[in-house]
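User: Hi! Is it possible to get a structure for several chains at once, not just one? Here's what I have:
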Amino acid sequence: MSKRQVTAGAIVALALGYGIAASAASAGEIKIGMVTPVTGPAAESGKYAQIGAKMAIEEINAAGGVNGNTLTLVIEDDQTTNPGAVAAFSRLASQSDIAVFLGSIRSTQVDAMSPDIMKVGKPVFIGGTAPQLTHQGNQWLFRCRPNDSYSARVIADFGVDTLGLKKWAIVHSTDAFGTGGMNALTAALKTHGLEPALVQGYPNQSPDFSAVVLAVKSSGADIVGSYFTFENDLGIFSKQLKQFGIQAKWVGSPSIATATAIKLAGPTLNGTYGIADFAADSSPEAKAFSAKYESIAHAIADNFSSWTFDAVHIAAKAMADAKTTEPAKVREAILAIKGYKGVEGTYNFDQNGDGLHGYNIVQNEGGKIVFSKHVDYND
Amino acid sequence: MTTGSSKAALAVPLLLAAAAASVILPLVHPVNGYLLNLFMQAATYAMAVLGLTVVLGYAGQISIAQAGFFGLGAYGLAIGTTVLHLPFIVALLLGVCVAGLLGAVLGASTLKLGGHYLAMVTISFQQILTLVLTNWISLTNGPDGIRNIPRPSLFGISWQDSDRYLALCLVVLYGVGAFVWWLKGTKLGLGMQAVRDNELAAEVVGVDTYRVKVTAFCLSALLGGLGGGLFAGGFGYISPDQFSFGESVVFLTMVLLGGADAAVGSAVGTALLILLPEWLRFLKGAYLAVYGLAVILIMVFMPTGLWGVLSRLAGPPRLRDRGAPEVLTLGDPEAAAKGGLLLEIKGLAKHFGGLKALDGVDISVERGKVHALIGPNGSGKTTMLNVLSGIYRPTRGRCWSMASRSPACRLMNWPPPGSGARSRTSGCSIA
Amino acid sequence: MAIFLQLLFTGIGIGAVYSLVALGFVLIYRATNVVNFAQGEFAMLGAYLMVVTTQDLGLPYWAAILISLAAMGVIGALFNLGVYYPLRHRSFLPVVISTIGASILLTNSVLVGYGPAPESLAGMFDFPGFQIAGVFLDSQYLLIIGVTILLVAFQYFFFEHTLLGKKMQATSQDKEMASLLGIPVARMIMLTFIYSAILGGLAGILVAPILFVSVGLGSQVALKAFAASIIGGFGDVTGAIVGGLSLGIIETFGAAYISVPYKDAFAFLVLFGFLLIRPQGIFGEKVAQKA
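Assistant: Yes, the chains can be modeled jointly so their relative placement is included. Here is the combined structure:
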């Protein structure tokens, strides 16, 4: 009797699943599926990502759509977890009329979704920066942000060549992003013939960074290179750096230059440098995007919204170039895109699916993020 | 487990049919990938939750570390297949054994602890495990996780396809479910329930409560590890953040929601808590808040869990009609005729500091006879019984016993018994 | 030497944070024999209430604190009615799960209502701190330590020397006996929850300038605070303080001299050790079962 009830429940769930999955696209419509955090710790960034994507869709539809069809966005919540991302993606994947997908900015979630992406065989645009994502043999991943091998090289080159500082302390989060960044930065410093004086990891959501800051002090480093995942941690670290009188220069991963970081850490971030995949003043396209974004979202544009904006435009361009939504042809069209001026930078897709190969350098001048220059690599 | 015999005869074939149907259905009729993923997650989670049924529902011991054992099984499988290149089954067993071993270790900590102290030990264990999984990068690949975990190829058939893998998981789940259901009525299972209901009484009656508790933890960890290993094969990618304290809480909520002491209840609770967030997707941002509220409401209004509610709907268990109760005789005249001592104690003393509650008591307990212990208030009758039951350690005394498992004699000095040391005496024949 | 002193100060500072939250745990536990897994969320709510009153409503700092703490009292009362009271006769596990559910509910309600962006909260003082002999003393940490000392003194006075305090103590020691003596037990428990919520909210308000205001603020501290109260001796107020300070110091020194990524592990290893060897903690009563 009992198992019958469970089986009955399972049949109901199956029916429900079929019912929900059965909503078909109306004629003249192309659907883009988006896996994004609506709940969970990254919900804030998910909100911005949605705004970026929707902005692009409105622009495209206003200009006549793609091949005469209007674009619509289908959103699924990944709950900021790996199983959540897989569930969200497979839920979208079961809708056969979705042509392309916007995936996650978190590399571990992309890894989790990867088997299902291969199965579905349609283009997925991602924002995760772990370099290995595009080197794992998954031909359906297209990256709309420069990966961390480039970010590390920019940090190292800028610090050593431009600032002329050779004694490095690397401070990084122990999560996947931080560890990957640390590895890339150590390798980049090695090409300059340098060994870091200190490599210090920390666990996310630490309430105190005394031990880390004192380690930096004892190492005698004159420059800090960092990969911080969360602005909370960055804020506490930044304050303590100043309190303990550390004079070293600081070049950080993008989290150092976000609006949230400035709000939390305030004047302690003055004079620090950051590498940013998105900088409002880096190009006319970025400026225009930034102004329009601010009017809609009432917040400063950042890299959560810029890459989804670019991804939608690139998807639309590829589908228009290929004159179809057939996956293999769209894929070829994406790889053929060269010199496309997006807001993150100029896209030249390589055979691995990486579209961008450089970063912007920005500086925090008295609380304002000022664009310094853009660095691109040819490989 | 008190269904009438006629109901049982009907229920078993129905259950088997339903189980078989649920396994065959996805193989025959194509089901979309989203649902396959969902059910596969539900099936593997249910195995871990069944482990909690054993340790929490049956034995009454709190474990908020089940996600840790789940993770150990998952990592055992993942490392075994991707790094050590072991066959799937061997790697699965590796994960399960590691989990079981650590489960026994955790169970060993129950010697002195119970209640929320035990809860804290399990939480600490869980937290330390998560930190090790995240930071021991050379072993576990750290926060990047392990990818490309293969699915097995058994008996010449490939289980690569999701529908086949789901069928495999379901078969294992039903096997585990049957095992847990059967366990309830075994000596071990009854011992666990005795420990849950009243540990002291269980100890007095002769249940080795410590061994029972360690076994319960070990079994629970084994099942958690089994679920975790199959989960890893199912999703193909695992990372440490999937096996954290939060997930342990989810497992615990599933078992409480379903009804802790029923194997079926666990399955129901798991299914509900995995499907519930999916059904609540339409609530978008607010769904986790509603989830939290739902947990509170369920705890308040459904104390025996969903299964408790459902089985009550099916009506109260039918009492077997055994006719008029027979009149029991006091003592056992046949055995008394045979004669013989069961227990003999000389010079028993029990001092509480300066207070001498018992001071040189002799007692002989004969087979089949009724003995009465009488005395004025404060003369030491309860103390005597507590010593004989092993609750108090006597200060002095010698004891001979025909029962090799009498707790008091375990503690005191005694020469080996005379002729025919037999199996245990039950406590009530001393009174 | 300066480094040692700096670490000591920071360790005591963060330890005082744990102590404040642990006090809330201990009070509710003593009164109801229940561990409140939503205690951290009280801190988070207090911090958010301050953000709302100072930034959204623009009230002056002192008025904002008073209003926020009053609101926390109301929340404590509602918490008692909704989460603890219906389950008061049940075993402790359903109540614990219920408090966990409450923690999820509170966290996500704030997330829905206020949004996920972390906020900053101004500290009590404008200047950041003092530099003495190579050691930087953060002014907010000094405030936290000061408040903790005051609070301990206040609690000692209240519980030992006022009638209401003694009634609450009686309730926590033996509910039945207290009820027989004419003490309104349900009301005492309600007061305990209200006070504990206010205490939690105050902890949040004091901590937020350092740790920032985000929905995860509660869980960041709560588990450690719980561990601290067990180390100190569960059910003992002095134990909560000593346990919190010890944990803060162990964590900070462990991070500096052994390993930063594993620093959370030290706290739990110490807890593990205590639970195995001396479960009653430093100050607690022996854990025993009566025959």
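The CA atoms of residues 58 and 193 of chain B lie 5 Å apart. Chain B touches chain C through 42 residues (CB under 8 Å).

User: Great, thank you!
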